[in-house]
Amino acid sequence: MVSPASSSMSSDSTLDPIKTWHTFAADKVLKVLDTDSETGLTPQQVTQRQEQYGLNELKESAGRSPLEILWDQFTNIMLVMLIAVAIVSAFIDFRKGSFPKDAVAIFAIVILNGMLGYFQESRAEQALAALKRMSSPRVRVVRDGKMLELAAKELVPGDIMFLEAGVQIPADGRLIEAQNLQVREAALTGEAEGVIKKPNVELPEDATLGDRLNMVFMGTEVVQGRGQVIVTNTGMTTELGRIAEMIQGVETEPTPLQQRMTQLGNVLVSGSLALVALVVIGGVIRTGNFSSLEDLLEVSLSMAVAVVPEGLPAVVTVTLAIGTQRMVRRHALIRKLPAVETLGSVTTICSDKTGTLTQNKMVVQSVYTLNEVFQVTGEGYDPVGELRLITSDENSTLSPASEVLQPILNACVLCNDAQLQQDKNQWIILGDPTEGALLSLAGKVGLFRETQNQQNPRVAEIPFSSERKRMSVICESDAEFAMFTKGSPELILAECDSVLVGDKIISLTEADRQRILDQNNEMAGKGLRVLGFSSRSLTRLPEEGNEETAEQELVWLGLVGMLDAPRPEVREAVKRCREAGIRPVMITGDHQLTAKVIAQDLGIATSDALSLTGQELQKLSQTELEQQVEQVSVYARVSPEHKLRIVQALQKNGEFVAMTGDGVNDAPALKQADIGIAMGITGTDVSKEASDMILLDDNFATIVAATEEGRVVYSNIRRFVKYILGSNIGEVLVIASSPLLGGGVPLTPLQILWMNLVTDGLPALALAMEPAEPAVMQRPPYNPRESIFARGLGLYMIRIGIVFSILTIILMIWAYNHAQSDGNPERWKTMVFTTLCLAQMGHAIAVRSDTQLTIQMNPATNLYLWAAVGLTTILQLLLIYVPPLQSFFGTHFLNFTELSICLGFSALMFIWIEMEKLVYKWFSRRRQNSGL
């Protein structure tokens, strides 16, 4: 950055972007940029600056190519092991001269899982592309004394451009002139209300983006008026460009689920390789030679296939997709599948105020006359509600509110350019939200604009200006004229010499003035936007050009205070957050006072809670911010980098952060947050593309509902992980022990794939449909960095795997001896295969709950599980009794006795788990009774 003193006026080679243009007078900016407001830049200057600065467009850094994303899928350690197993299996089959069906099946699973991962990750990052769409294609400029229209990308610093209503501003610039210029800067600041621009002000260096009234910025839109601007920054040096840089600078971390799945793969593969080595070495030592190496290798291959849960990636993906559908029904759209589970780990929700915590509708809260205070009820723009008298003094009348407030409500309706309309049972506003709130207020006592305008047609008006801070209208009234004025209370009060009390006009005393100012300060202290109202009777219309002289000797009518009211359902949602151990934080571009009032009203912050403004935050180092961030619940007047810093500080403290936003300014923070949540109604394309989730109703309560679904999804993932891996550990131990019998491996890789994909997969999918536990939102979130094996899951899998293997090994010994004496030495393998598959059905039924017995649970809460168990059992029987399937899967016919024995041993698995629950309950009751 170059300071103004070092900027050259004669040589373009020393021109550099300056970020403090708002501190300069317009003529100083012209001088620094060596340009002229009348003639603009010369062709030579344009050429030099285009070479120096390049095109006025946002530049994109290269991301991963589709081929790189695809390749990354096959570097997963479990898939690598399966590929190795498939190669060795194919080699052994070719040596035997048989078709390598095991290898083909394994390769098919590898490719399927790889493609599944690719489609999840291959969504190209579109946030920067959405930013690029925000630049205006054409712009009017003056160059070399001639007015030109050219492509926005050709702009350079020093160009003089012209703005008018409807134009999307194509670069950052310092205003030279403005005529009633109003710019909507919601894309950058998050605030929807248009900003009135003032070219003739010089601002302090630390003025926030929303307060830089003498500047305009790329990507914002001119609402009304026109202006002349010196282009100060283009391309990546604009405010929009800085946001683009921040988006590209944010590194995406793996989600907790992705980290847990990686950890799971590492543990399984390393454990499998260790067991394979143990079996091979033990087998060689036992036989004393290498002649049995090929048999041992087949055992090892079966073990390797058994330990890898081939169906788990598909089950996880389907579970996340089911969670996505549930969330859509609750008005939350998930863009990235892993975000479904990630939501359940959230510890802090950073929410924007406008439209998310509030209705994004200005609603009148109270009306003050000199002697009375009225509270206003009702929601949104609906003209249904009441004006309740709260306080009055002895001089006030006890007339109905409609009579007492008739004069001020007339002013609300007549001094107004908005329209209140009903559309499909919903009241909407056409025009300014503030004026819409006034129409809704008057409608509560039956005063509507159409009727009032017919009775008192407008004949003249004095429009609002930023200098006067008020507007007036003159209407016909009986044989005379009536003028109504609204605007800044202090400035209107200064023009009043009398006040309306009841139906009498009396002189305005100094005590009355002070009383009104105190009322105004009290309302502002509550975070309300306050308007003052006055009127005056005229015998004739003011002369043209002298309208403002009529705004004198006014009669004071009263004050109206309004607020972007909180959504009624948000208070309960905030309460649920607190109960669930989640801390809500408000981050807004609005004023600090207003933000604190809303936060206190909703329960986000207490009256003595810390709050920070963007200016205060700017002075803190990142370390200082990290120390304060846990105590601050409200951030006001923040800029894009502030939001990013807040999220980073929270994450540094170990918080798992969800961040909401709707503007371009929110995109970097949305991308940085563990869960970025964009607004579906008011959100920009940029914020949506940078997010993980989109709120279809822009409602904070929806975030809490989605968090509940996230917790349910994580619980169900843990449920079927312990189901699948408990079974797999049992399979591995059974296969590892088989060489001791001397009868070969009881399970082929193809049979193991069948178990892992079908007999494990279908019930696991059904377990994903388990409903929420009753107290799922009455506990703190689990540590997002906890291991997949945490809270006893690892011990459960090992314990159940051992029980699984002991039962099956006992059956295997009996079946082996029975098969030898029965003359069919291979039938024992089918009995082992069948017992393992059917035992998993009992395991699936029992694993629904850690504490409740199956008989205590309502079977109708998950009919999918019973259907999956029934279907899987039938499919397993088909493998035994349908000849073509017998041949393909290498099974043998079992008689009734053998099948009954398999069913009996399988049922023991279910009985064991139910007995564990009884023992757990017994110990829990003993601990409670002993007071431990």
Automatic annotation (TrEMBL):
<dbReference type="Pfam" id="PF13246">
    <property type="entry name" value="Cation_ATPase"/>
</dbReference>
<dbReference type="InterPro" id="IPR023214">
    <property type="entry name" value="HAD_sf"/>
</dbReference>
<feature type="transmembrane region" description="Helical">
    <location>
        <begin position="893"/>
        <end position="913"/>
    </location>
</feature>
<feature type="transmembrane region" description="Helical">
    <location>
        <begin position="299"/>
        <end position="322"/>
    </location>
</feature>
<dbReference type="InterPro" id="IPR008250">
    <property type="entry name" value="ATPase_P-typ_transduc_dom_A_sf"/>
</dbReference>
<dbReference type="GO" id="GO:0098662">
    <property type="term" value="P:inorganic cation transmembrane transport"/>
</dbReference>
<keyword id="KW-0067">ATP-binding</keyword>
<dbReference type="GO" id="GO:0019829">
    <property type="term" value="F:ATPase-coupled monoatomic cation transmembrane transporter activity"/>
</dbReference>
<protein>
    <submittedName>
        <fullName>Calcium-transporting ATPase</fullName>
    </submittedName>
</protein>
<dbReference type="InterPro" id="IPR004014">
    <property type="entry name" value="ATPase_P-typ_cation-transptr_N"/>
</dbReference>
<keyword id="KW-1003">Cell membrane</keyword>
<keyword id="KW-1133">Transmembrane helix</keyword>
<dbReference type="Pfam" id="PF00122">
    <property type="entry name" value="E1-E2_ATPase"/>
</dbReference>
<dbReference type="InterPro" id="IPR018303">
    <property type="entry name" value="ATPase_P-typ_P_site"/>
</dbReference>
<dbReference type="GO" id="GO:0005524">
    <property type="term" value="F:ATP binding"/>
</dbReference>
<feature type="transmembrane region" description="Helical">
    <location>
        <begin position="793"/>
        <end position="816"/>
    </location>
</feature>
<feature type="transmembrane region" description="Helical">
    <location>
        <begin position="828"/>
        <end position="847"/>
    </location>
</feature>
<dbReference type="Pfam" id="PF00689">
    <property type="entry name" value="Cation_ATPase_C"/>
</dbReference>
<comment type="similarity">
    <text>Belongs to the cation transport ATPase (P-type) (TC 3.A.3) family. Type IIA subfamily.</text>
</comment>
<keyword id="KW-0547">Nucleotide-binding</keyword>
<dbReference type="InterPro" id="IPR006068">
    <property type="entry name" value="ATPase_P-typ_cation-transptr_C"/>
</dbReference>
<keyword id="KW-0472">Membrane</keyword>
<keyword id="KW-0812">Transmembrane</keyword>
<dbReference type="InterPro" id="IPR036412">
    <property type="entry name" value="HAD-like_sf"/>
</dbReference>
<keyword id="KW-0479">Metal-binding</keyword>
<dbReference type="Pfam" id="PF00690">
    <property type="entry name" value="Cation_ATPase_N"/>
</dbReference>
<feature type="transmembrane region" description="Helical">
    <location>
        <begin position="103"/>
        <end position="119"/>
    </location>
</feature>
<feature type="transmembrane region" description="Helical">
    <location>
        <begin position="267"/>
        <end position="287"/>
    </location>
</feature>
<dbReference type="GO" id="GO:0140352">
    <property type="term" value="P:export from cell"/>
</dbReference>
<feature type="transmembrane region" description="Helical">
    <location>
        <begin position="74"/>
        <end position="91"/>
    </location>
</feature>
<dbReference type="InterPro" id="IPR044492">
    <property type="entry name" value="P_typ_ATPase_HD_dom"/>
</dbReference>
<feature type="transmembrane region" description="Helical">
    <location>
        <begin position="863"/>
        <end position="881"/>
    </location>
</feature>
<dbReference type="InterPro" id="IPR023298">
    <property type="entry name" value="ATPase_P-typ_TM_dom_sf"/>
</dbReference>
<dbReference type="InterPro" id="IPR023299">
    <property type="entry name" value="ATPase_P-typ_cyto_dom_N"/>
</dbReference>
<dbReference type="GO" id="GO:0016887">
    <property type="term" value="F:ATP hydrolysis activity"/>
</dbReference>
<dbReference type="InterPro" id="IPR001757">
    <property type="entry name" value="P_typ_ATPase"/>
</dbReference>
<feature type="domain" description="Cation-transporting P-type ATPase N-terminal">
    <location>
        <begin position="20"/>
        <end position="94"/>
    </location>
</feature>
<dbReference type="GO" id="GO:0046872">
    <property type="term" value="F:metal ion binding"/>
</dbReference>
<dbReference type="GO" id="GO:0046873">
    <property type="term" value="F:metal ion transmembrane transporter activity"/>
</dbReference>
<dbReference type="GO" id="GO:0015662">
    <property type="term" value="F:P-type ion transporter activity"/>
</dbReference>
<keyword id="KW-1278">Translocase</keyword>
<dbReference type="GO" id="GO:0005886">
    <property type="term" value="C:plasma membrane"/>
</dbReference>
